[in-house]
Each structure stands twice: as structure tokens, then as C-alpha cells.
Amino acid sequence: MTTRISIIDDNESILTSLSLEFQSHGYSTITFACPQAALEHHAKQPADVYIIDMRMPKLTGFEFYSRLCDTLKKDRVPALFLTGVDNLEESALKNTTIGDYVLKPFSFNILLVRMEKVLSYFKRKEENKTYKIGNLLMMEDKILCTWFGKEIELTKTEFDLLSQLARRPRVAFTRDQLLDVCYGDNYNVTDRNIDSHIKRLRKKFRKANPEIKFNRIKTHYGTGYAWTPQSVAV
């Protein structure tokens, strides 16, 4: 299957030239001068990798990336940033978990190599269904996790819920957002189903390792829940 590249830049000439170059190397491309239009399109048709200009009138590259992750309900997506700035802020790097960036002006060959590097990295991540978040180890293929080395068996719904929270620590998800992750378009559930799952998750973690106080799933009253790497009261 042909790799799909989305290019988001307010400069039409850059969009045209990059699109033609990538197509000549066997890639499929789609271009957007308007970042909002790109978000609306990719909500239904995600790309395999995104090339994003940092300086756009309506949204910065970082803002676009953050909204794209929210739209796709992912903690990160394969992205390469085009920037004239050579010292990206450390906090922004942490927030977006950028794979790589290219300084303007650049040669297409450098851009191609960087893009393929980012894509390769994310493909390896997709193939690896085990990921570690602090003392939490999650095994997607087995729908299983370990907490400080102790195995905890989860239902598929519990696993999806825990994964959504733990992979984006400190982000408070509403019950509606978590319902969408766990149940999709199934309308025969309510937000109280999420409360029940959270209660069972906490119980399973505490039972698996009673000597370690488990308080990583924080309740945001009136909103929903968040995973916190810090020890806080729930």
C-alpha cells in the first residue's frame, strides 16, 4: 500500500513542489494551505505521516499537531516539522514528542531522509505492542498489564481505558471522551459506565500489589479522569 503523506503549509509553492517531489519517489500526497481544513479531512482519513510548517497564520505547527493528536485520539503521530527556528523549545518538544524537524531552507533529499526515518520509527513502534509508562507495562496483544512487576488481567474495555489515560499523563479526559474511546458509536452506555470501569481498575491494581499505594488515576470532579505519574490523592 502506498504511503500517504499530508503536507500542511500556507505557502502554495512549497506545497506544489514538495508534492511533486514525493510523488516522483512513489509516495501519495495530499496538501493543505489551511490547517483547519487538514484537521477536518484527517478526522475521517488519517495520513501515514504529516509534514507541518511551524509558522502558519491561523495555527502554529505545534497547535496543529496537538489538535491532530486529539482528533485522532492518539498521544502522538508521525510528524516532521519545517521551521526557520534552530532551537525548538524543550517544553514544546516534550508536549508534542516530535520525531524530527528540518530547518529552512532545506534540500529535498534531506527532507526525504528525515521523513523516512520518522516513518520507520513509528512503524517499529506500531509493530511493538508492548510499551512501558513508568512502572506500568502494557501488553496490547495479550490485553494485559503489569504494575511493579505484578500481572493484572484486564478486559478489553479496561485496557483501552487505561491505555488512553496512561499514555497521555496529566491530561484530564471527560467521561464522554473516554466513552468514545471504549465504546465508539454504541449509544447503549452512559458516562457512569466509565465510573464503574475506573472503580474496577483501581480495585485490580490495589489487589495485585497491596503493599504499594495505588493513586495514579486521579478524579477531576465535574470533568473526568487523568493518569498522574505523581502521588496524589484520588
Question: What features would you describe in this structure?
Answer:
There is one protein chain. The chain is elongated and about 60 Å long. The model has no long low-confidence stretch (mean pLDDT 86). 42% of the residues lie in helices and 21% in strands. The chain contains eight helices and twelve strands. With 234 residues, it is α/β, with parallel strands linked by helices. It has a five-stranded parallel β-sheet, sandwiched between helices. It folds into two domains: 124 residues, Rossmann fold; 98 residues, Arc Repressor Mutant, subunit A (Orthogonal Bundle), CATH 1.10.10.
Helical amount: 40-55%
Tell me the CATH superfamily of the largest domain.
Response regulator
Summed over residues and divided by their number, the pLDDT gives a mean of 86
Order of helices and strands: EHEHEHEHEHEEEEHEHHEE
Span of the ends, CA to CA: 46 Å
Low-confidence stretches: none
Largest sheet: 5 strands, parallel
Number of helices: 8
CATH architecture of the largest domain: 3-Layer(aba) Sandwich
Q: Remind me, CATH topology of the largest domain?
A: Rossmann fold
Total strands: the figure is 12
Molecular shape: elongated
Count the domains.
2
Strand proportion: 15-25%
Structural class: alpha/beta
CATH class of the largest domain: Alpha Beta
**How would you describe the oligomerization state of the chains in this entry?**
single chain
